[in-house]
Design brief:
10 helices, Membrane-bound Lytic Murein Transglycosylase D, Chain A, MGlyc_endo_b_GlcNAc-like_dom, two-stranded antiparallel ribbon, 13% strand, alpha+beta, antimicrobial, 6 strands, Lysozyme, amidase activity
């Protein structure tokens, strides 16, 4: 399973619930989380901070200081800011919807059913200083088929969804043998999937994948650049270069099929 699949599986239920409670489309929630947290890999998004959206301030008195970049007068600058600190990703997703309701400047985007309009409205209301923020949200939604989440939420069926578990967070007292038995797999398979060098050495909080990674492809479109494709897919440009044996990163063509994990 790729980091994109893992990340989306982790936040899907909360994103869909956010539509019913706060009127924020799940596709927009997911795209914002992906961009702001680099698909759940940024230091701010990881334990013990769990802030997926770069929301500033404090949450129930908890906060953390981090440097961040802003676009001010057309220039990229780095500033130190105070960000909300959450106990988990699910709480971060919940607070994301609450944030829009707490701030009256976002009142015009609540309940919009067009993800393009909601994405552009969020940018126009001042959520981010990046002039391309809305375009990046829209590209992320389209590249990852996130409008299917919107259709599900708008159909009213979202709250009955049950998904097969695809990852497991190691708990105190766990070992690979017990985890393998719990999920009807083998220790050897868990070792292979997660590239574990020492089967006797796992630690609480470690996230184990339960299914093998599926190879995917992306067909280059007119106007694409490798860096933009990497952002859309939530992977590094270096991964695309290595996976596809690309000699010149500036030379790709429409119709070219790129492989990625």
């Amino acid at each position: 399973m790729s980091k994109v699949e893992f990340f989306l599986n982790e936040i899907k239920a909360g994103a869909i619930a956010g539509w019913h409670k706060y009127g924020i489309l799940p596709s927009v929630t997911a795209a914002q989380a992906a961009l702001e947290s680099a698909w759940g890999t940024s230091q701010l998004s990881l334990a013990p901070n769990h802030n997926l959206f770069g929301i500033k301030g404090s949450y129930q008195g908890q906060s953390v200081q981090f440097p961040t970049w802003e676009v001010i007068n057309g220039q990229n600058v780095t500033v130190n800011a105070t960000f909300r600190k959450y106990p988990s990703w699910s709480v971060s997703v919940e607070d994301h919807g609450s944030f829009f309701h707490e701030n009256s400047r976002y009142s015009g985007i609540i309940g919009l059913t067009d993800f393009v309009a909601q994405a552009r409205g969020i940018k126009a209301a001042g959520y981010a200083t990046d002039p391309l923020y809305a375009d990046k949200l829209i590209a992320t939604i389209e590249a990852n088929g996130l409008t299917s989440w919107d259709r599900l939420a708008l159909s009213g069926q979202a709250e009955t969804i049950e998904e097969k578990q695809t990852s497991y967070t190691v708990q105190l007292g766990d070992n690979l043998s017990l985890i393998a038995k719990k999920f009807q797999t083998t220790t050897e398979e868990l070792v292979r999937i997660n590239h574990i060098s020492n089967p006797n050495l796992i630690y609480p909080g470690q996230v184990l994948q339960l299914n093998s990674t599926i190879n995917k492809t992306y067909t280059v479109q007119s106007g694409d650049a490798l860096s933009l494709i990497a952002i859309k897919l939530g992977i590094s440009m270096e991964h695309l270069i290595q996976k596809n044996n690309i000699a010149n990163p500036d030379l790709i063509y429409a119709g070219q099929v790129l492989h990625y994990d």
